[in-house]
Amino acid sequence: MAGGIIALMAVAAQLAPKLQAGTQGLLAFGGAILMAGAGMSLMAMAATQVAAAGPMAFASLALMEGGIIALLAVAGAMGPQLAGSICGTSCIRRSSSDGSGRNEPHGDGSNTG
């Protein structure tokens, strides 16, 4: 948390001359600092509650975090393939349908016009 505050102050020191030119930028940066402070307060409160809950709560949070990381890794690896397959399926379906965009069989049992 101390590292985050130090990084925030370093960014503020670099942006201060630019933000002094416009009041909107200064107000937006002040709002960002307030939101970051509220987030740090929330993280500190959550950390104390997890510490008070015991080691099993910490272990379950660690397992949940590992599961989320694994899910994101799989989604990142398969994302382009899934997007390509959805587009390909949609194009094939439209080209083989009767023009209505639906791929339903006709009354005679065939799927052609």
Helix count from the secondary structure assignment: 3
| SSE pattern | HHH
Mean pLDDT: 75
How much of the polypeptide forms β-strand, as a percent range? under 5%
Task: Provide structural commentary.
With 113 residues, the chain is an all-alpha fold. 80% of the residues lie in helices and 0% in strands. It contains three helices and no strands.
Features:
single chain, 113 residues, mainly alpha, 3 helices, flat
List the helices and strands and how they pair.
Layout: H1 2-19, H2 23-53, H3 55-95
Short description:
The protein is built from three helices and no strands. By secondary structure, it is an all-alpha fold.
